[in-house]
Amino acid sequence: MSALLTLDSISKIYRFGQIKALKNITLVINKGEMTALQGPSGSGKSTLLNICGLLDGFDEGHYHFDSTDISRLTKQALTLHRREYLGFVFQSFNLIPVMTVFENVEYPLLLAGVEKRRERILALLEQVGIAEFLNHLPDQLSGGQQQRVAIARALIKKPPLIIADEPTANLDTQTAHHIIDLMHTLGRDSGTTFLIATHDDRMAARCSRTLQLIDGVLQ
How many beta carbons lie within 10 A of that of residue 91, not counting itself? Predict the structure, then answer.
């Protein structure tokens, strides 16, 4: 396996109070891995996800995404890199309420200027089991259905890395099982790399490995 993410002694310091949210994080995530990140609330999981997802900077250390040195990218280049290489799944779904299922999944392709989108979108909606609802608005769907749309939106550009923050937190047990199965299958079949922050031991059990983050330190 080759590395997709390499973090070397990454620290994140909040200036007020000089609090280190992350302390010398060294981590390698290989291509195709499905990695769970666990730890109590306030342990730094979201901070680490935001750094890995190029949503937040870091104060110490080095971060390479594949062969790219992230610290050398301009703000504009970071935005383009994030748009090209990453997908995100959030516990609150973050779907655009005035857009249909089809339009929500199509949106990343529109931003990227991709043509011939329809067949690609329909095939993915079929794969995640939501094709019959393509013309529905998000508030017409159940929580599990909305999460499937969110997963499809994250996958539609076929990014190397998908970052998921508590993707089963707001779901009932049966729906959570379906979402876990879906993400595991999609990761296995597509070779996509997943980094998943979760309190759900069922999700962690399906991942390649589980990392524990306590008080900003990887155990």
Answer: 18
Q: 27 and 193 in contact (C-beta within 8 Å)?
A: no
Residue 209 pairs with which residues in a beta bridge? 35
Model pLDDT for residues 74-130, shown as the tens digit of each residue? 999 999 999 899 999 988 899 999 999 999 999 999 988 899 999 999 999 998 999
Which residue range forms the structural domain that includes residue 192?
Answer: 3-218
- pLDDT tier at 219 (50, 70, 90 boundaries)? confident
Average model confidence (pLDDT) across the chain? 92
**Which CATH number goes with the domain that contains 146?**
3.40.50.300
The number of distinct structural domains making up the chain is 1
